[in-house]
Design brief:
It is built from 2 helices and 8 strands; from the N terminus they run αββββαββββ. By secondary structure, the protein is an alpha+beta fold.
Amino acid sequence: MIQEIAKRILAIPGHAWVLQMNFFAGALPQKTKTGQPVPSRVMVLLERVPADLVADLPDYMDYSLQVWNRGADYFQARTDAYLIFEALHGDWWRDLPIIFAGKEYRAWTTDAKGSPTPIAAPNDNGLFEFSTNYLLRIANLAA
């Protein structure tokens, strides 16, 4: 699921994100895919809590996603967080990109649980961090 959402975000116009270079899904690695250190300006999608399932709707889940980002200064990090927030929050009836055959998902709704929030301003390395949590109501169309 996180890979489909990552691909959806990377399709948003107006950003400078490149998968496995300054945009990561699942964890923040120590190095990029080319072996270079991860830059200070970075976006990471994280799965922090399990999805809520509904027994009567086996093809449905409430999927929680954290979008964490950092930048060299407060306004760079804030601008990046709000770019994603404005694209995702309130989005509805969005078919997610297909990554694996037989796995087709639709996000009925995508809602932020709050606005992007500074969580380190700055951190120990002088970088500014923001975090935003989202709830996606997902249907598995292939089931």
